[in-house]
What does this fold into?
Amino acid sequence: MTLLSLRELQAELGGKQVLDGISFDVAAGEFVGLIGPNGAGKSTLLRAALGLIPSRGSIMLSGRDGRTLSARQRALFVSYLPQEREIAWSMTVEQLIWLGRTPHRAAFRPVCAQDRVAVEAAVCAMGVEEFRSRPANALSGGEKARILVARALAQDAPLLLADEPTAGLDPAHQIALMRTFAELARKGHAVVACLHDLGLAARWCTRLVMMAGGQVVADGEPRSVLSPELLRKVYQVETFCAEHGGGPIVQPYDLASGE
Amino acid sequence: MRASAYAILLAALSGLVVLTFVGSLLIGPSDLGMAGSLEGLFSTETSLAQLVMYEIRLPRAVLGLMIGVTLGLSGAVLQGFLRNPLAEPGILGISSAAALGAVLAIYTGLSAFFPLALPLAGLAGAFVAVLLIRALTGANGSTLTLILAGVAVSAFAGAASTLVLNLSPNPFAATEILFWMLGSLTDRSMTHVWLAGPFMIIGWIMLASLARPLDTLTLGSDAAATMGINVGKLQSFAVFGTAASVGAAVSVAGAIGFVGLVVPHVLRPLVGSVPSRLLPASALGGAIVLLTADILVRLIDPGHDLKIGVLTAMVGAPFFLWLVYRSRRNEL
It folds into this structure.
């Protein structure tokens, strides 16, 4: 089932064309890594798909026109993990994760078993049981990142759009997060994540979409997208690519020699 | 913060509201005594005590309660909406504009012929301010634009009020304007209650409906929007709810400062910093503070008609300094 379908998506920011005709589909079961150099339009693409910024072109969410959905209906189809890890008030971790249940709870509807199950699953998936009763603002940057992911997971939407979810995490937590997203995809959800770490993207995503200059320049299986030639052209870096432990290893090691 | 602890807090605050409300009814310069006051309130015969209770103390206590709720609630909503603990009901410029309207009514002499012209002009001022802010920011303006528009409206209305004071024809008019601007609940009638009450209640309903949306706003406006919150509607309700309730409050009692800033600030740690839980607590807290302040102005210096706005700032500012000092110490 197609959870996200974009056709000829265009968006401008401050008079500059940031998205220049983006088209791709994301099906249930896919973990899509959205990669590309700074300024390629990755974050803008996520924000436009969510209706957070004005755009032109077609946005379909689970077969429905994303532009005509109400905010609440949209929240049932897609959840979002912003790049900014903003927590304005120091509520407890548990209360913060419960915010993810907001679109499921009509005014005055009491908490139901499904809410509890979703919150517990999110807490376990991110391994944040031990600080669930701590104030959210007293946590370290990496811990904050994890509870914010748990909040997005608690929303339990079929599609998750995550903007640089691994930034600021240590290697163990980066890999744990990628595993969580891969597992989510295996269970029939879909995840689209902006990533800067090509190694993680290569190893854990089922598919990579590479952007540059507001356009999709490559789309496909990680091994085919992450070729040293394409990375040299798009990122201007030299990259070491190999196979190890049943998966690809991709490590940029120097700037591309200028021609 | 457990749900039961929260229920106890709300119960305790409600108890204090009842206590201060009754205190406001029983304490006053006319020396009725407790028994006399109660007799006046509940007797069916016309008597001096009854007159004092219904014409003076009841409207004063009801307005104290309603304005306190307005200031506490709108302060909590605006701090949550702007995600800034320094936000207060006056930040949108509505208080200053309402005050300007009322000042103009005094200056033109309209309020001397027709006493209700004063609150009506205040409401008109608040109405003009909210239209102006909406015109400046649009329906989906950023919070920064909203604050800047509020600052601009506030500065203009403040300057215009000072100009009116500057041009006032005689010292008596100037004194009256100045005293009115200080904020007071003295000599208000039930007519004031009936005039301002509906606006305040409509404002409360709009502001109270924002409880859960404000919780999601803790994670930023984008996150809130993707959790099913219509952020544009949230902003409209915050602006119009504040305009209706605070505009009405200022129109009948003048601009009473610090309550809307300090009360949410003090109560926030007690509700575990959850914005939705802060709304009812802060509404009750505002009522307690304003009713207490209004009792104090009667007790401290009954002869001089000490202004409640002066008292709230005199007590509120040092208290606020202490809060700042304490939070600095916690950071060290």
In short: Chain B has a mean pLDDT of 90.
